[in-house]
Amino acid sequence: MSRVERIRAALQAALAPQRLDVEDDGHRHAGHPGARDGRGHFNVLIVSEAFVGKGQLARHRAVYAAMGGMMESDIHALSIDARTPAEDSAG
User: Fold this and answer.
1) N or C: which end of the chain has fewer CB within 10 A?
2) H-helix or E-strand containing 4?
3) Measured between alpha carbons, how far is 79 from 3 in angstroms, rounded to an integer?
4) How many of the other CB atoms lie within 10 Å of CB of 33?
5) Would you call 13 exposed, middle or buried from its count of C-beta atoms within 10 A (0-12, 13-18, 19+)?
6) Are 41 and 26 in contact (CB under 8 A)?
7) Quick one: pLDDT at residue 54?
8) Complete edge-to-edge strand list for the sheet that includes strand 75-83
9) What DSSP line would sit under 55-86, residue for residue?
10) Helices 3-15 and 56-67 sit at what angle, rounded to 10 degrees?
């Protein structure tokens, strides 16, 4: 299973998103000091009811919690766009 697939699976299990886009952005960071250790750069767009009533910090913490040990072993940088369904449909 690829890193993107593992990220998707972890987020699906923890946050039951209505929409989830995971992009491996590692190719844009070749040679970056953080990329040398083999960990990747990823962008995540996640839309979930779990974020209703939560601020951005709490949403990001929920995503990081779902990633668990992957933040130490597989992910160097994670760009997160976490929205509620209402925010996603608002454009």
Assistant:
1) C
2) helix 3-15
3) 15
4) 8
5) exposed
6) yes
7) 98
8) 19-24, 40-47, 75-83
9) -HHHHHHHHHHHHTTHHHHTEEEEEEEEE-HH
10) 120
- The rounded distance, in Å, linking the Cα atoms of 33 and 28 is 13
Span 10-67, pLDDT tens digits:
999 999 999 999 998 865 555 555 555 556 889 999 999 999 999 999 999 999 999 9
Which amino acid does the sequence have at 7? I
Its pTM surpasses 0.70: yes
Long-range (24+ apart) CB contacts under 8 A made by 12-16 are 13/66, 14/62, 14/65, 14/66, 15/46, 15/48, 15/50, 15/51, 15/62, 15/63, 15/66, 16/48, 16/49, 16/50
